[in-house]
Write a structure and sequence with these properties.
Blueprint lengths: L3 E3 L7 E3 H10 L4 E3 L16 H8 L12 H9 L3 E7 L8 E7 L3
Antiparallel strand pairs: 1-2, 3-5, 4-5
Length: 106
Amino acid sequence: MSNIIRLPYGGGASFDVQILIDHISKSGRNYIIQGTQQDTLDKHRKPNSLDVWLRVNVAPRHRDTAQSTNDVIAQLVETGYFREGKFECPDSDHSRLLKGIELVSQ
């Protein structure tokens, strides 16, 4: 089980899962929505999503390419630090549940 997550469309970009854990912990939530969007970064409608975080922090040279693929979610879940689920979207109607990952208590 690796703690390094590789982005399939990030031009070889990868990151250590601890950086994402720290980001989620600082957000005041224990989860992050996937938020994959096939649009440029400046038109993205989910600024608090994993997709935006990856584009800005991990693959900035590919910031206009969706990065939070199902493969990335699967890699994150395989680390044992996350589980997949449905969560309130912090960027839209809070009654709407979207796919994402939450931190698993260690």
